[in-house]
């Protein structure tokens, strides 16, 4: 039993869960945390993808009532439930097509500290710009969205294929830009994360199955549990935070953290 390895897995799981649903880029934090702990290589990259499953299951648990309601609605052929699922599908597809097409290129060429730092800084600037020019929202609930709204957010999510952009940041700010309230944009980002991150996790497992061994099960389990617990706390925190604040503090944090990443790896 490699105790040090399990401690690293737990710490990285905590980092993943705490940063996945905040608009600050979990990838950026994982890259610098993994480098500090000398947890790098192809298997490490796959580990970082797989523990996302723990984070997304935390969202499923938090919204279990809504998910159950939609499932019952689909069974009853309810129009609102069908529209909700249809919107998720429309928003999900752009990132799928682009992700499959450019998966190898992204992993080989964009997963490095300098690209991540630049994406963090630029993303922080975009958040400040959107918040400063934000108009009154026209959509206050995810149930009021139309497929056109979902498509625009899905296209925004595609930018998150660039490490450091932040999937949640791209979808939340995209939602706000296109007329959703902060609450609606954040909740749709959470719901959209479910199919997106499930697909990313299992696709990465399929592509890198040869890197995994039976000895890795306990390490992956430790990271998974830590990601679940910390993600659940992060989701509750963000929903409470946005009820009283803008996203500007996250923008400033991104810019400062991006500069720290640049200086650290310089």
Folded structure, characterized:
This protein is an all-alpha fold. It has 12 helices and no strands. It has helices spanning 3-20, 26-36, 42-50, 52-62, 64-75, 79-109, 113-132, 147-158, 167-177, 182-207, 217-242, 248-265. Helix 4 (52-62) crosses helix 11 (217-242), helix 6 runs parallel beside helix 8 (147-158) and helix 7 runs parallel beside helix 9. The longest helix is centred in the middle third of the chain and has 31 residues, at 79-109. The radius of gyration is 18 Å and the shape is globular. The model has no long low-confidence stretch (mean pLDDT 90).
Q: List the total number of helices.
A: 12
**Mean pLDDT over the full residue set:** 90
Helix content: over 70%
- Report the radius of gyration as a whole number of Å: 18 Å
User: How many strands appear in the DSSP assignment?
Assistant: 0
What global shape is seen?
Answer: globular
Percent of residues in β-strands: under 5%
* Low-confidence runs of at least 5 consecutive residues: none
> Main β-sheet, in a few words?
none
Helix-strand pattern, N to C?
A: HHHHHHHHHHHH
């Amino acid at each position: 039993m490699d105790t040090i390895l399990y401690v690293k897995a737990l710490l990285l799981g905590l980092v993943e869960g705490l940063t996945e649903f905040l608009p600050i880029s979990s990838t950026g934090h994982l890259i610098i945390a993994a480098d500090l702990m000398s947890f790098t290589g192809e298997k490490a990259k796959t580990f970082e993808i797989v523990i996302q499953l723990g984070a997304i299951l935390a969202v499923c648990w938090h919204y279990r009532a809504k998910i159950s309601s939609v499932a019952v609605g689909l069974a009853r052929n309810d129009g609102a439930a069908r529209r909700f699922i249809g919107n998720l599908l429309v928003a999900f597809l752009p990132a799928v097509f682009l992700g499959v097409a450019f998966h190898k290129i992204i992993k080989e060429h964009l997963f490095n500290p300098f690209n991540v730092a630049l994406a963090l800084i630029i993303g922080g600037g975009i958040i400040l710009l959107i918040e400063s020019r934000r108009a009154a929202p026209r959509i206050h609930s995810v149930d009021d969205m139309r497929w056109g709204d979902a498509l625009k957010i899905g296209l925004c999510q595609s930018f998150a294929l660039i490490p450091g952009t932040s999937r949640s940041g791209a979808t939340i700010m995209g939602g706000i830009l296109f007329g959703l309230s902060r609450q609606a944009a954040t909740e749709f980002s959470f719901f959209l994360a479910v199919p997106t991150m499930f697909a990313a996790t299992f696709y990465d497992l399929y592509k890198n199955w040869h890197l995994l061994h039976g000895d890795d099960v306990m390490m992956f389990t430790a990271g998974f549990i830590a990601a679940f617990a910390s993600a659940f706390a992060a989701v509750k925190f963000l929903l409470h935070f946005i009820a009283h604040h803008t996203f500007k503090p996250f923008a400033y944090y991104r810019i400062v953290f991006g500069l720290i990443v640049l200086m650290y790896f310089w």
